[in-house]
Structure to design on (404 residues):
């Protein structure tokens, strides 16, 4: 194939600049933008990158949405990689989801390796780095002829709802041991990773500071779907899944019927109680680039997580995005959120959460506090994070070459 990959591999440099990246991430076209997308896009600014949608941690359910995704992925698997950008390609690697059945793991590994190798040949990828952001495709690490393997761990995946926790925990540990370099976004997980692999480093998320800072710019128009909503507006954006405490949101909405609760994102769980309330609005998922326009309407942003192991180990991307908007924030306590206690109001109990929102509405809108929230994350851009990540990968690549 003619194109940037061929030109790239004609370079004689012995370092990672001659490499392409085979990147195993979540659904590229998912409704919510995750760290997987942010990292892949920035890597593709420097390296030819093949983004592979890996199978995911949860077995599909017998509903229209999941079945549609299954058939879509099976159809996409027959296609060669599709170009999305200058040096960014996309493909799907479907797998049989019933991993505990005899022979399924071996079949998935063999079929996955064949599909990926075919794609690598079609793109002219010769020197490669494999990059995993979840453990479900981790059995391919070191089996693609790659020069280096990277695991970028963003969550305690075995604590996710609806997954085979024991199996996923084993897969996670196995990939951690086998990867040449491990990045861990959550500080609560780093010691366990280091015990399995000494080449593990803490790597917190970045954020699109300039994008989200528009939410506090008076020149930024409010999204049409939020314009005219009665104030105060208590806002949230992100995937509304099992880890979001909708019972807490319902308590707040019932306690303050004159407040508007704007819940932006795909509603993936039942919410009959909230849907019955006139002051709660679910506008659905919105394009990532428009989130500052929606946040422009927020008087207070909230992080109403359920208090469980998954949340305890999380490094919530939305925390930094909220801070970049400059808006007042009320959140439940987690180790990562507690690090920002100087500019985030934190409450565990529903009554206290309600009181903190009231305090935020009354006291947290002055320009000095707004600037403090933005300055707390101004150095934490995705570009800055990626510079550190690539430097670490470059060092590890040189170490591995030197040891041969």
């Amino acid at each position: 194939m003619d194109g940037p990959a061929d030109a790239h591999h004609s370079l004689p440099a012995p370092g990672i600049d001659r490499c392409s990246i085979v990147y195993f991430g979540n659904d590229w076209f998912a409704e919510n933008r995750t760290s997987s997308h942010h990292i892949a896009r920035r890597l593709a600014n420097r390296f030819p990158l093949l983004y592979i949608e890996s199978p995911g941690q949860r077995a599909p359910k017998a509903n229209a949405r999941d079945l549609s995704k299954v058939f879509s992925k099976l159809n996409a698997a027959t296609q060669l990689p599709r170009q999305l950008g200058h040096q960014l390609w996309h493909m799907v690697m479907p797998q049989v989801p019933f991993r505990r059945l005899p022979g399924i793991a071996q079949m998935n590994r063999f079929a996955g390796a064949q599909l990926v190798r075919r794609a690598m040949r079609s793109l002219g990828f010769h020197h490669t780095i494999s990059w995993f952001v979840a453990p479900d495709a981790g059995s391919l690490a070191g089996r693609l002829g790659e020069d280096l393997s990277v695991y970028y761990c963003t969550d305690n995946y075995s604590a996710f709802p609806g997954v085979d926790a024991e199996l996923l925990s084993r897969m996670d540990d196995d990939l951690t041991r086998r990867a040449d370099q491990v990045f861990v976004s959550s500080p609560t997980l780093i010691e366990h990773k280091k015990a399995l692999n000494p080449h593990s480093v803490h790597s917190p998320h970045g954020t699109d500071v300039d994008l989200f800072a528009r939410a506090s710019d008076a020149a930024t128009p409010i999204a049409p779907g939020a314009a005219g909503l009665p104030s105060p507006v208590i806002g949230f954006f992100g995937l509304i899944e099992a880890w979001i405490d909708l019972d807490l949101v319902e308590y707040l909405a019932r306690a303050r019927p004159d407040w508007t609760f704007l819940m932006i994102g795909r509603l993936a769980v039942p919410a009959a109680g909230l849907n019955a309330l006139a002051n709660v609005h679910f506008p659905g998922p919105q394009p990532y680039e428009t989130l500052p326009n929606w946040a422009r309407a927020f008087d207070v942003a909230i992080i109403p997580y359920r208090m469980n192991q998954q949340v305890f180990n999380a490094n919530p991307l939305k925390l930094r995005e909220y801070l970049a908007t400059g808006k007042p924030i009320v959140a439940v306590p987690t180790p990562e959120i507690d690090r920002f206690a100087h500019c985030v109001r934190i409450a565990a109990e529903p009554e206290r959460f309600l009181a903190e929102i009231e305090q935020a509405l009354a006291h947290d809108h002055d320009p000095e506090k707004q600037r403090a929230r933005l300055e707390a994350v101004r150095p934490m851009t995705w570009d800055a994070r990626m510079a550190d990540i690539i430097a670490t990968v470059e060092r590890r690549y040189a170490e591995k070459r030197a040891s041969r």
In short: The longest strand covers residues 20-25.
